């Protein structure tokens, strides 16, 4: 059976074929070091695909996958991650897909790559934006999530500034934030943990104003301590084996350890980056009682989407390792 026959047979007949999608239309290349591409897939939706072998380094697809699954599982608003199959035919159909490095052009390999579901539409009024206007931060309906994401990023030793896209809601003038680009979480593409105070913040630091309350910080940390050990126990089993070259077991041990001293990690990072100037003040504690902080929601423990993905993906890997290898994941 040729690959094409195999692939269409596989997608039609395999009980777990919903685990991955195939790209069928190239739209454009995105800005950024990983040279990601915007594609349309066979579910008709658009994805930003970050391909294996991209110039950012070895574990970027694993970081993207782990970052989006973990952030989604703790209830943070994050662009959904997906496995996207790029065929040889698709890659050869468009020269723009190739990586451009100073010395050469490099062809990505066919196989499974990481896709981030496009927030909004590729063009028109529903196109998302990365620009955060300091004067309009209060129009971001879920702005409190930036504090939760910061704490998660400190835990995950994020090595780059946090990125998010904003989408204008159609029913009112509010905007909603979705976190993207997790390629530099987990000590960066080399899984090399080193403290870089303040690295995890979004570049538009006004987004954090008035968000820091010790009680809220403690709530996030205790939520992460409750949820993350279980998430870590299953997320590694659904990570495509060819998406990383580092020591996954060692990474998990480091992450579990960082959970136990997360309070200190966050305090040190915040203190050294001097962003939350009011933290620990008596005024904050007083304001807490009448500031509407009770609106703070305990995030969902795990979205149904990721639970389904985990279950079907684990079956997929177990049921047919030969198919998996043929797909070049
Ligand atoms: N899920 C998404 N929805 C909308 N836009 C996205 C999404 N993911 C990435 N982008 C856009 O694509 C650009 C490149 O993606 P990013 O993940 O930041 O790649 P890089 O690692 O190369 O910086 C981002 O700056 C953003 O404009
Ligand atoms: Mg980026």
Biggest sheet record: 5 strands, mixed, barrel
Q: Classify the fold: give the CATH topology of the largest domain.
A: Phosphatidylinositol 3-kinase Catalytic Subunit, Chain A, Domain 5
Order of helices and strands: HEEEHEHEEEHEEHHHHHH
The name of the CATH architecture of the largest domain is: Orthogonal Bundle
Compute the average pLDDT: 85
Q: How many structural domains does the protein architecture include?
A: 2
In which order are the strands of the major sheet placed? 1-2-3-7-4
- Strand percent estimate: 15-25%
Notable characteristics:
329 residues, alpha+beta, Phosphatidylinositol 3-kinase Catalytic Subunit, Chain A, Domain 5, two-stranded antiparallel ribbon, 10 helices, 9 strands, 36% helix, binds adenosine-5'-diphosphate, binds magnesium ion
Q: How would the blueprint of this fold be written?
A:
Layout: H1 3-13, E1 20-29, E2 37-41, E3 46-50, H2 60-73, E4 81-86, H3 88-92, E5 99-101, E6 104-106, E7 111-117, H4 145-155, E8 163-168, E9 175-180, H5 214-235, H6 248-260, H7 262-273, H8 282-290, H9 304-319, H10 321-326
Parallel strand pairs: 1-4
Antiparallel strand pairs: 1-2, 2-3, 3-7, 4-7, 5-6, 8-9
The structure holds adenosine-5'-diphosphate (ADP) and magnesium ion.
Magnesium ion binds at residues 32, 163, 181.
């Amino acid at each position: 059976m040729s690959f094409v026959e195999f692939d269409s047979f596989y997608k039609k007949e395999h009980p777990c074929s919903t685990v991955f999608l195939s790209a069928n239309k190239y739209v454009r290349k995105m800005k950024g070091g990983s040279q990601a591409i915007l594609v349309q897939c066979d579910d008709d939706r658009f994805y930003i695909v970050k391909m294996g072998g991209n110039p950012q380094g070895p574990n970027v697809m694993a970081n993207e996958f782990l970052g989006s699954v973990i952030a989604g599982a703790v209830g943070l608003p994050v662009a959904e991650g997906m496995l996207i199959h790029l065929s040889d035919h698709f890659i050869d159909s468009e020269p723009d897909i190739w990586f451009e490095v100073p010395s050469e052009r490099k062809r990505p390999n066919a196989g499974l790559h990481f896709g981030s579901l496009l927030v909004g539409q590729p063009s028109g009024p529903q196109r998302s934006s990365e620009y955060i206007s300091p004067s309009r931060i209060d129009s971001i309906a879920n702005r409190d999530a930036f504090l939760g994401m910061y704490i998660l990023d400190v835990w995950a030793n994020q090595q780059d500034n946090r990125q998010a896209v904003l989408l204008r809601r159609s029913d009112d003038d509010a905007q909603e934030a979705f976190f993207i680009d997790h390629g530099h979480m987990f000590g960066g593409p080399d899984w090399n943990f080193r403290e870089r105070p303040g690295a995890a913040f979004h570049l538009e630091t006004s987004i954090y104003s008035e968000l820091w309350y010790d009680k809220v910080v403690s709530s996030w940390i205790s939520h992460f301590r409750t949820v993350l050990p279980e998430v870590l126990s299953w997320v590694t089993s659904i990570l495509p084996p060819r998406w990383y070259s580092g020591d996954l077991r060692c990474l998990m041990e480091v992450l579990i350890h960082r959970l136990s001293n997360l309070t200190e990690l966050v305090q040190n990072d915040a203190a050294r980056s001097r962003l939350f100037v009011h933290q620990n003040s008596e005024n904050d504690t007083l304001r807490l009682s009448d500031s509407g902080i009770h609106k703070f929601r305990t995030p969902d423990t795990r979205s149904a989407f990721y639970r389904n993905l985990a279950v079907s993906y684990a079956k997929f890997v177990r049921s047919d390792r030969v198919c998996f290898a043929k797909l070049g994941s």
